[in-house]
Amino acid sequence: MLTVGNNAIQIIAYILVMMLCAYGGGRVHQWYKHTMDRDQSFRDGYNHGYRALFALAARRARPKAALPKPSEQRDPNGPLRD
């Protein structure tokens, strides 16, 4: 009892199944890519925060004797010439 109409319905059903599988695969790929990008962003942000906090702590730990006195600071334009 095969008719011409059954072949067309089967082809449409196969195309529909292939489209749904392609869509599902694309969504899985998008989810995976988004997760990897989010993980990389987290690592970059963590590294940046760690470096900024470490630099801030190191700046605070510098001995005050190493800082130049206001009278010893150089003129940014250089020495004046006659």
Structure description:
The protein has 82 residues and is mainly alpha-helical. The protein has a domain at 1-49. Helix content is 70%, strand content 0%. It contains 1 helix and no strands. The longest helix is centred in the middle third of the chain and has 57 residues, at 4-60. It is rod-shaped, with a radius of gyration of 34 Å. The termini are far apart. The model has no long low-confidence stretch (mean pLDDT 77). Residues 61-82 are annotated as: Disordered. Residues 71-82 have a biased composition (Basic and acidic residues). Residues 61-70 have a biased composition (Low complexity). The chain crosses the membrane at residues 6-26. Keywords: Membrane, Transmembrane, Transmembrane helix.
Summarize the structure.
The protein is mainly alpha-helical and 82 residues long.
